[in-house]
Amino acid sequence: MLYLGALLLFLAMALSLSIIGVATKERRGVARSVAAIQAMDSAPVEMKAELERPFAERVIAPLGEQAVGLGRKLVRADTAKKIQHRLDIAGNPPEWDVNRIIGLKVIGMAVFACAGGLYLLSMDMPFIRVVGLTVAAGAFGYVLPNILLYNAGQKRETQMQQALPDALDLLTVSVEAGLGFDAAVGRVARNTDGPLAMEFNRLLQEMQIGTGRTDAMRAMAARSTLPDLKSFCLAMVQADALGIPIGRVLRVQSQEMRTKRRQRAEEKAQQVPVRIMIPLVLFILPCLFIVILGPAGISIVENLG
Asked: Is 200 exposed, middle or buried (0-12, 13-18, 19+ CB in 10 A)?
């Protein structure tokens, strides 16, 4: 009984001390919270502005800068120039720049590698294969921004190729009507839309700020990989250097662009029978054989049986 009483007394003291400690800890926590609120109220305006900034600016932006720094260490020295060239081809989409592409490459590599590694570890696969597939997933995440950027550039080039003959026709008519080349370019930029109108607008702005026509046309050709646009820019540069009338050059270029557009349409029309051959042989003809020869086959089997 003496031992039991001492044990109960010890448990009561321990319970009392724990209750006192919890209450004291809660009071300390409340006091710290109140002190933090008072400190925030009495903090300078600069500190309040820093704390009121969005989460993306306070946390995500520094992480993105670290990813950009790591990405610049991983890529080659000329990668930034290549990415900038691809951005020019894609029309420099809003909020896309070299640093963001490099940061997305690093983030994509990390995300795809981690997700792929966790998924593969949950499966019953050899460790060597898991490592190889994880590395492949990381490599895919690393090149994914380049693929998206290249796809955006290809779509823009297709739109420019489709709109170039009509734009050259309007440019030719404007020049032959008596407008100067700069005024004709401005009319094309105002009366058309799409990426080609943006390129003509940028060409006009460069000429208005003092860039020579030759340099502006060469820069326009350098921002694109479209052969027709490069040919047009080269013809205009040669006409400006040799003193050939611009109206004549534009007339020849517009006729050539219309001819090329008609040839491309005829080429696509000629490709239709070749492309339709595969689904015809693999899907349509077997169904026709089953529908036509199926009843005959059933009758033959019944007669032989």
From this structure: buried
- Expressed as residue numbers, the domain containing 224 is 158-265
Is the Cβ–Cβ distance between 229 and 221 less than 8 Å? yes
Q: For residue 97, what are the contacts with CB-CB under 8 A and spacing of at least 6?
A: 87
CB crowding 76-105: b at 16 or more within 10 Å, else e: eeebbeebeebbebbbeeeebebbbbbbbb
The answer to whether position 101 is within a domain reads: yes
Query: What is this structure's pTM?
Result: 0.67
The two tokens of residue 56 are 């993306």
26 pLDDT higher than 60: no
Determine contact, residues 163/189, Cβ cutoff 8 Å: no
Nearest to 130 by CA among 138, 120, 115: 120
Q: Of 122, 153, 184, which residue is a domain's last?
A: 153
pLDDT at 96 over 60: yes
- My answer on whether 256 and 169 are in the same domain is yes
